[in-house]
Design a protein that fits this description.
InterPro entries: Trig_fac, Trigger_fac_C_sf, Trigger_fac_ribosome-bd_bac, Trigger_fac_ribosome-bd_sf, Trigger_fact/SurA_dom_sf. Keywords: Isomerase. Its EC number is 5.2.1.8. The structure is a single chain. With 448 residues, this protein is an alpha+beta fold. It has three domains: 112 residues, 2-Layer Sandwich (Alpha-Beta Plaits); 194 residues, Orthogonal Bundle (Trigger factor, domain 2), CATH 1.10.3120; 106 residues, Chitinase A, domain 3, CATH 3.10.50. 15% of the residues are buried. The strands form three sheets. Strands 6, 7, 8, 9 and 10 form a five-stranded antiparallel β-sheet that branches. Strand 1 and strand 2 form a beta hairpin. The protein is built from 14 helices and eleven strands. Helix 8 packs across helix 13. The longest helix is centred in the middle third of the chain and has 36 residues.
Amino acid sequence: MNISLQNVDNVSAVLTVQIEKADYQEKVEKALKTLRQRVNMPGFRKGMVPMGLIKKQYGTSVLLEEVDKLLQEKVGEYIRENKVNMLGTPLPKENNANFETDENFEFSFDIALAPEFNVELSNNDTVDYYDINVTDEMVDQQVNMYRQRTAKYDKVEDYQDKDMLKGLLAELDENGNTKEGGVQVEGAVMMPSYMKNDDQKAIFNGAKVNTVLVFNPSVAFDNNEAELASLLKVKKEEVANYKGNFSFQIEEITRMIPGDLTQELFDQVLGEGKAHSEEEFRAQIKETIAKQFEADSDYKFLLDVRTYLSEKVGKLQFADELMKRIMLENNKEKGEEFVSENYEKSLEELTWHLIKEKLVAANDIKVEQADITNMAKEATRAQFAQYGMINVPDELLENYSKEMLKKRESVEALVNRVVESKLSEILKGQVTLNHKAVSAEEFNKMFQ
């Protein structure tokens, strides 16, 4: 077997593979013998069909299959061993091979090559880095959420914002009387603070137990089908029939009283002995929020590095027609129109991929299994943190991360996150960071 690579230009080449009978004969003979053991042919016992008949009936298809397997193996091996920086997959050129008569074959493949370019970063390069401010209000919200976990619920006599009401809900007619045959819901529960209309919400201010109030649910909840169907106990498609007023006789008012900031709460949230006072507790909450924001800042930093380097490197040369063929081959069901509409965008993604590959190689970034496992745990920890669960037991993190690692797509995503995390940390030390303090709202607007 002979394999050669001939460059067409800087970004494309033709790979030629010459296969002789000696390259495949042994494999074909072995495959035919295996097939002979399995074939059932009338007039012959299983495994006793003459080899001549086997070759006559199956020889060509077996030859085709073995040559194809040999091609895939040897082409892949050649590309790896010769470090051919190929984009996509080799595209076979037309050939006149006749598997019924020929013994020697020649196959050619069009190959797209990655363009050559240099990319470097130093302290002469300046990139923005956004430091997101952690406000006292953020800390208050988080602390209040934890206090709500240990809250108690008291029955009270007068309504205040965020109280829960329970009572008799009844549909009224145009004269303001209880409608005969209308909707009535006993033990209806609602929280006026969730109403969308401020005027309707104000009707309940200062209301007391046994007070009968008149309001319009449709207006109060801005015609939200799901909320109205739940409140009125009707089907969603029937909600439009109830546009009028309802009376609500308050039978019970329940108020949530947030729990105290106790040592038990500190230990429950942070772990035993991590905080011994409200001040220490709040400081740790602030630190946790800041850490979450830092991950967001690093993500934005890498996006800005991408933009900066893409502009610095400039537009790279690609074998456009060949690249479009590769793209079409990978998106056959979407057709040429899809390729035409998305080709330039795909080159932007490919350019960043190539830049990132060079940065990873230049900084000798490697991904070990321990890195993937730790990233799975951190991803799981971040998910729990979104729900205010900071002190998650290691055993629980371990179990969740193991489930994540069972899925190939998850592992690939985690590998990419490990690479980007390591790359971000290294690049922050190489460039000059232009620190900019921003609010969370200002930061989020950058992604809109």
